[in-house]
Automatic annotation (TrEMBL):
Pfam families: 2-oxogl_dehyd_N (PF16078), E1_dh (PF00676), OxoGdeHyase_C (PF16870), Transket_pyr (PF02779). This is 2-oxoglutarate dehydrogenase, mitochondrial. It comes from Elaeis guineensis var. tenera (Oil palm). The keyword Mitochondrion applies. It catalyses: N(6)-[(R)-lipoyl]-L-lysyl-[protein] + 2-oxoglutarate + H(+) = N(6)-[(R)-S(8)-succinyldihydrolipoyl]-L-lysyl-[protein] + CO2. InterPro entries: 2-oxogl_dehyd_N, 2oxoglutarate_DH_E1, DH_E1, KGD_C_sf, ODO-1/KGD_C, THDP-binding, Transketolase-like_Pyr-bd. Its cofactor is Mg(2+); thiamine diphosphate. One of its GO terms (cellular component) is oxoglutarate dehydrogenase complex.
Amino acid sequence: MAWFRAASGVARLALRRNLSQAPHHIARTRALPSSTRCFHSTNFRPKAAPVPRPVPLSKLTDSFLDGTSSVYLEELQRAWENDPSSVDESWDNFFRNFVGQAATSPGISGQTIHESMRLLLLVRAYQVNGHMKAQLDPLGLEKREIPEDLDPALYGFTEADLDREFFLGVWRMSGFLSENRPVQTLREILNRLEQAYCGTIGYEYMHIPDREKCNWLREKIETVKPREYSPDRREVLLDRLIWSTQFENFLATKWTAAKRFGLEGGETLIPGMKEMFDRAADMGVESIVIGMSHRGRLNVLGNVVRKPLRQIFSEFSGGTKPVEEGEGLYTGTGDVKYHLGTSYDRPTRGGKRIHLSLVANPSHLEAVDPLVVGKTRAKQYYSNDAERTKNVGVLIHGDGSFAGQGVVYETLHLSALPNYTTGGTIHIVVNNQVAFTTDPKSGRSSQYCTDVAKALNAPIFHVNGDDLEAVVHACELAAGWRQTFHSDVVVDIVCYRRFGHNEIDEPSFTQPKMYQVIRNHPSALEIYQNKLLQSGQISKEDIERIHNKVNSILNEEFIKSKDYVPRRRDWLSAYWAGFKSPEQISRIRNTGVKPEILKRVGQAITTLPENFKPHRALKKIFEQRAKMIETGEGIDWALAEALAFATLIIEGNHVRLSGQDVERGTFSHRHAFVHDQETGEKYCPLDHILMNQNEEMFTVSNSSLSEFAVLGFELGYSMENPNSLVLWEAQFGDFANGAQVIFDQFLSSGESKWLRQTGLAVLLPHGYDGQGPEHSSARLERFLQMSDDNPYVIPEMDPTLRKQIQECNWQVVNVTTPANYFHVLRRQIHRDFRKPLIVMSPKNLLRHKDCKSHLSEFDDLVGHPGFDKQGTRFKRLIKDQNDHKDLEEGINRLILCSGKIYYELDEERKKKDRKDVAICRVEQLCPFPYDLIQRELKRYPNAEIVWCQEEPMNMGAYHYVAPRLHTAMRALGRGTIEDINYVGREPSAATATGFYSVHVQEQTQIIQKAMQQEPVRYPY
Ligand SMILES: Cc1ncc(C[n+]2csc(CCOP(=O)(O)OP(=O)(O)O)c2C)c(N)n1
Ligand SMILES: [Mg+2]
């Protein structure tokens, strides 16, 4: 009898310890340290009636099964017998039910309450730990100790009890424990427990602290009849598995030496996904965003997303680059075939259509996760999917990466945050029990690779990947869970990898035993075909017919792939119609706003509701802001930003800003939300610019303390629709390196690799004000080093022909005035293309007395200060403010700088009355404003040229600026690279000193040097 291990010493010991000698319980309870072992905190009183604090069954965890539990139940029963009202209602019901049944049912007259309770414990043990006994490993190699609490002997049952009848039933419980269960023999109960929990699906859900959710699952798991699919449905499943299997076989035979990271050993993923999507569509899902890495990606692309097979085959043959097709040709640098994304409208079995998009991704495992979630959230916003039931994210993981990559956890933690939730992501792990050459025991410390998801109370379905129907069932259940409870769920397909990590890798070097087994192991398709043949539901001929059909389509597509000519790449989704590729000129537009609009939105964003009680200091700030709008004077950074957001919103754009503490602002300057000091209520002035404004149209949200996932999320969000300004702000710029993968793999190079544009703006507080090495630098040099504008080539700079930004991978700015910040944000939207924007944002300029703008610099009126020849625009370079003539021969030094050091230089210049020094601010570092630099070089023909920065020489913009500045000079016949004089900190390992006094000394030296009378002549 499989369930019994009665002979085992452990079981006997436990049995003796817990159950057979009931009267010892009181002494034992006293001996136990209550705080460590008990699941309730009440101490038993030895003589008087015990008053234990009841714990509803659904709340009990593993500790339910320890020695104290049975003692507890016995105490509970005694208490109930003395006074039914002394126990919780649910226990009262239980005892009443049980006694009632026992009294009226002759079949179970011999059943004692103790037996019933022990049976409950046993059922509970299966619910909690049944997965430990489930047959999950197709290779049968996994050696797992079966927990002793699954042994009936532990509860005092012997073989003699097998055919005795028992009543099982608990109020408000589904499945076995529902109160309406008929009387069953122990054998029947055990059979059903085994069938429910120890088959080819192992369910982990008892960590979910919600009775309703657990009951929902129990109802689906503890079914009366085993799961059974109709013959028709089985044929569909078979067809889908044949497609999955044949696809890999076909690629293997046609391209024997190509890397494709095949799915062999995990082919049931494809039918699993298809059935999941069908089920999801039946339940109202209209669009699915998929993220996945290499394993099986081509199969998913071809069979699930339905990228044309001929295109996949053509890419295998190396013919990816599109041929000339005239205007709008846009190829980028491209990427390997198993990274590319695509989208498609897929018809479902239920006769619906579902839009599928597979997001392009880099090699970096799991890095795409937050993008998928962000994109899903954006889709929900744009499709008014308030219930979050129409758009779903699905992530497919590897076992090694799911357990190992921190971004998995960071992404999971976004799942229930109000401004990040998507109503649940469905996770599928292709758990082939190996990561490249690494065994699970070297790759993770947790039992399952999915344990990380338990932190989220997500149910986890482990399923044997050889059992197609079980995989399909788990996938359908996951879809059902997502649509019912709107939270994450995990399907862990335990499978194997038939070949090496890729097809040219030898797996037996490192996993010899596993591969001995794999060599002789039948495929999931063979297993399923045999099962169907044995059932008599399908004939050999039927199977052959499907094989032939699939084969002939694959062959046809292969033939067609030879003439396949890729057309213009599908980089535009519907929202992006009319947007320009870098080959197509996008007219440069002005970003000034009509004065009356500025006034109107200015009033709206500086007014608080009448009865609102803001903090005293904030009241003052809002009054000051209102005055700034009224007088037009002294507009500071925060107000300029709010004006940019507000004006974009009234133009119909969506604005979303997220990051750590962005609502108030790390430096307490933004105050996008105001909190009523009495009620705690929040008010967001930017939500009240339009009549009946949708609250989400302007979203500002504090985030979880993650850079990687949150930046990834916003990036995914920004890619859905161009009519949105999406921003991520780092707490300090330094922390952006926690999201380095997003910068390197996506933001700087995504357009080039995958032809997907984004206008994401990244705000990175930067500036040397003595806060130490970790709060001074946003590592400007790294962003500049990743910029792809050629330092030795001046591109077309004529305003009507200029495509400089379009052709560059991103923009890096270090802006010094509120008005210029306003215009650079608005410029992100007021153009026909999208390009990432990296902003070195200020800290001390937020409150600097001179860092103010006049409202007239924001408007579009001719003659106003912001208005130049072309109109009011973002100034890529701010010329010297001393209003020099076009030719100023008396200027001896031209200092070029960027960022807040300008104000320090300007102050010193005033102090020293150095009228012979001009200071120009390079506001946009990348792409380099050659035209404006040359204009200034021409203006000051006799000036010594100085690049001044506060960062160390190996950091900051120096190494980016020097060759470009030289190129600009060279074209004017204005000296060599040696004529670029450096003023700044010496090279350094740390970004800044930790000693404030040293900082002040260094900063002073820089300013002094820049203003010294004698020539700078450094570094040469
Ligand atoms: C972040 C990252 N680190 C390392 C690698 C190199 N690498 C590629 S595949 C792989 C193993 C992945 O194992 P698993 O997640 O189990 O997926 P499988 O290949 O087994 O399907 C590794 C380490 C990578 N692609 N990304
Ligand atoms: Mg793996």
